[in-house]
What does this fold into?
Amino acid sequence: MNQSTAHDQLSRRQFLKYGAVLSASIAGPIFYAGCAVDPVTGKKQIMMVSPDQEIGIDKQQSPFQFSTDYGITQDDKLNLYVSDVGKGLLPNVHRPGMPYNFHCVNATYINAYAFPGGTIAVTRGILLKLNNEAELASLLGHELGHVNARHTAEQLSKGQLSSLLVSGLSIAASTQGAGLGQLTQQLGMLSQGLLLSKYSRDNEREADFLGNEYMVKAGYPSKGFVGLMEMLDSLHKESPNSAQILFSTHPMSSERLNSAVQREKGVYQNSKKHSLNRERYMDSIASLRSKKKGIELLQQGEKYLAKKEYDKAQSLFKKSINKIQNDYTAHVLMSKCLMLRKKPSQALPYADTAIKLYPKEVQGHYIAGMANSELKNYTKAYKNFAKCDELLPGNPQMTFYKGYCMDKKGDNKPAANNYMAYLKMINYQPNKYSRYAYDRLKAWGYAK
It folds into this structure.
């Protein structure tokens, strides 16, 4: 056994104590109540979160959400277009000093979201549902409404927001607990939508009101906002499962559509003279529209993947790859599906192709690491997980897996260092992985 000093050793009592202490205080970082001015209404309000803290939460969480959504699109023209439309709304917002940024992410599910510091994203799936630029401006305006009304900060101040968001990724990973032992969740790294705020109906009403205002002031007709609401209302009534995450975070109702219609006929009736810019929208997303059939196959495949009908999912992913051969998301999904079918040797080539297609995005490296680990190629697996850590630092699971690979190679000291680092990153939260790490440290004399 390797020996260590008493100071460096971790006792089982300490391990359980740290876990219990954290469980009791899992509400996250301490926020101090103070008086702030509501940027929209101008009225004083009790606010426990400062703008700097909002930006900090954003910077910490948004990169992980982007990776869960297969990264920012590599279609620079499409991403620039989304960004330009978003920036066109900024002269009219109530919080002009926030570091706003707008992106299209590679996910195929239908969603858009905002982080409290001003990071806003739309998925490829929702862009394919929009009909014109005015609807895109409405969508981005709505998300800007959440940021400007400080809805996430409001939830934090009222203690209503999940501790996952305020406590950082380490808590998010550890609270999945035994679920991370399920390969399905392992391969997803973090569940889609795990880090997103869940808004109330009042939040949605206010974000609609502000988003409508922002897009009209930017020169778009209010009809675009009505069009967005019609699309969402139709989805909600006819196929809610196609936008499950969207509706879980952004509650939809016919009231929202009716309010948009009333605003168009009333306060914004003079906006009818403005153009919806349909042609410019269709031209700007032409490259995405050319992939529509392939993306729809991915959407169908993901539904079967969720149902654990892996053979049907694999067939659809294969068809998608035949249509959109260089699509990163398609290759990652195929590699995930094959891993779930316990076919790591078949999954690995798809993961390796994904890495070549998008070397700076994490999921390809992650699935390759999982496949190499299953195949007992621990040196290669370690390199995959180390690359994940380099590209997206701060995920405790990568530290655990690096330790696991060293462990399996017989390199006890570096393995122990990674296991101890993992335990510290998750604040000694008890789960399947932390117990494994602790037991290995105890066996080597690093814990008592």
Q: What stands out?
A: The chain has a mean pLDDT of 85. DSSP finds 24 helices and five strands in the chain. The radius of gyration is 23 Å.
